[in-house]
Amino acid sequence: MIKYSEIKEEISLFKHGFHKPNNIENFDFSSLLENAKKIEANSDDQKSGYSTDIYEYLDEESKTKLKQLSLRLLKYKIVKKYLLFPSVLKIRVLKAKFNKDAYEDPSHAMLWHRDLDDVFSQLKFIIPLNSNSKENGAFSVCSKKIAARDQILIDNIMINKLASSKDNYRNEDVVRVSDEAFKKKFSNFIFEFTGDKSDLLIVDTNRCYHKGGLVLFEGLERYMIHFHIGSPTNSFHPNMNLKNKN
Q1: Model pTM score
Q2: How distant is the alpha carbon of residue 170 from its chain centre?
Q3: What's the whole-number average pLDDT of the chain?
């Protein structure tokens, strides 16, 4: 696996498609986490392959602080170097719990994929609100060097598994790759993001294969902020139009 200590500064974003800068400073995450813990999230949400977005249920003070932080991130020099006319597209606060079905049969965001939300690059700033480990679902990203933008990796095991399925939602996983198959081929290019609150990972999710982490044990929870920063072209991409309609 990639050891981040071996990658120099922001070169990693241009070379590998992700970058781990210094922690976010001068921001109080404790009140945001306290607010997030009060919001109920059903573990059944994980069956769909996604964590529960609780942003809209936060109090107004927490939302205001997150918007202010997003504007700070937007001014990072690395963002201006990497994106053309960057803007904050979305703020999410994700809460995940253990779900037995999701653990045994992961889907969608819990499988290796690229977002393909734009013809150009986009960045996601990922910040844990609590300690992030393998046990409560570490985010994983793979160097963009493994596949060109116009190449899609195909997992034959996944194709065979879905061949007889009549579930249209699960059939979308045909363009995703299982963790087992992906690690057999690309383990030397993977970076697993574990850390404490206020750590930060910047990922070009259009260029890099990545996957959300599964919570492995009952009673554990994961809280994470996603700031989605992209170019104006994101709004016109066919994939975004489809998502807006459905």
Answers
A1: 0.89
A2: 19
A3: 88
